[in-house]
């Protein structure tokens, strides 16, 4: 059968019974894999790798070929969209991303262009098309973007930040300009994600990596509201494509996130999976949530902790196994194999209908 809608991953997102829990890993294409490091060296830099559809396709497929994960994720970055707005993205060795032209005033916000997904980020859409052609028929492809708040932290701070002081100052002191920035990013993100679906993405994910840094009020007013704006637009443009919202440190907002109308929620490791499930009920599927640090231990500890996550979620459909955040560069690739085998061996999640 080659009806991808019947894949374990897409069935789990619809909370339909399946014979086992699907698994993929955030940052599954990355530096822990020697074949990734080789392709990256060939490309010369991360940005050249992400900007080259053939090479982006190659690294997207590497973890699928090695482990047979139940979903692939487009190889790109959440900062490609602000890069397309002309901020000048760069990566300093060992220091992470930076923007040459950060956005720090209302005038700079109002001058931001609205990128056209096909002409300004055509290489991303070309990568999606190429990956879809080369992936196994039954392996769904996840397209993604960052949340407006998380992307804005990099745009405002000019790079990574520990306390997000400049970004928070803008939200607090210039709320109207900050709202215009969130709306602009939400509209650009919805168009960017819609284009990924048209190019062949089977599901979408939004990374709100820094949502947990906001007070509850600022979270609702800026991060949640702008993600809601994206969900509403995607429900118009691609209502059949499931969307996962991942908010790191956002466990306290789980019910609000489940009420946005998304299909699934990514859960980080600071929450108990069973408790997360009780709180969202049957509104959404849940994805997660093994602590990435577990992957640095031993095969025995990895198998034990993975089973804890599976048992905490419990019987029944609607679970996608993942880490609670991205895999770290130092992980032994053999450890990922142990994780995949543990989850695969864990048994049925519903009435056991077989995928053929
Ligand atoms: O998950 C995947 O395998 C798909 C590809 C992907 C990357 N970044 C590739 C990448 C995805 C989904 C992202 C998302 C991303 N990027 C987020 C949100 C998710 C999260 O981890 O919280 C954030 C905050 C970024 C911004 C970013 N990109 C940072 C801070 C850095 C530098 C730190 C680091 O990990 O090196 C990047 C670079 C980056 N993006 C790398 C990869 C594989 C490493 C680049 C390299 O090869 O040197």
Topology, please?
Layout: H1 8-13, H2 34-43, H3 46-50, H4 53-67, E1 72-73, H5 80-87, E2 89-92, E3 96-99, H6 106-110, H7 117-120, H8 122-134, E4 141-146, H9 148-157, H10 165-173, H11 175-199, E5 203-208, H12 216-237, E6 243-247, H13 254-258, E7 264-266, H14 273-280, E8 285-290, H15 299-313, E9 319-323, H16 333-344
Helix pairs in contact: 2-4, 4-8, 9-11, 10-11, 11-12, 14-15, 15-16
This protein binds coproporphyrinogen III.
Description:
With 356 residues, the chain is an alpha/beta fold. It has one domain: Alpha-Beta Barrel (TIM Barrel), CATH 3.20.20. Helices cover 48% and strands 12% of the residues. It contains 16 helices and 9 strands. Helix 11 packs parallel to helix 12 and helix 14 packs parallel to helix 15. It is globular.
